[in-house]
Design a protein that fits this description.
With about 110 residues, the protein is an alpha+beta fold. It contains two helices and five strands. It is about 40% helix and about 30% strand.
């Protein structure tokens, strides 16, 4: 009985120690464009944080300058991950090359 208790206690300690691990996930940065209700001001920056009633946007060049915008003042928000255009272009090129090779090889076999 004592052995089973000690084994159970050791297993619980391992689970507890594993639960305390802090995984270092890479943060994703999103470029943000905000058009405010007065339509004369447009904000461009990095989405820093989304709160209960406001957005926090950091500057593109200086991430230490963070500005807060209330949801009621925001008319339109556009968000895009950084380098998403490059990723999309690479994926499109791969699909295009693959499709072209497939069609080309089929035509060569049929008429070759």
């Amino acid at each position: 009985m004592k052995k089973a208790f000690l084994i159970g206690l050791v297993i619980c300690c391992f689970f507890q120690a594993g639960a305390q691990e802090n995984s270092h996930k890479k943060t994703k940065m999103y470029q943000t464009w905000i058009r405010l209700n007065n339509d004369s001001q447009r904000v461009k920056g990095i989405l820093y944080e989304i709160g209960d009633s406001s957005l926090f946007v950091a500057g593109l060049n200086d991430l230490s300058t963070v500005q807060e915008y209330s949801f009621r003042d925001v008319d339109l928000i556009k968000v895009r991950r950084q380098r998403s255009i490059i990723r999309g272009a690479i994926a499109g090129a791969e699909v295009g090359i693959g499709g072209g090779l497939l069609v080309g090889s089929t035509l060569v076999e049929e008429y070759g």
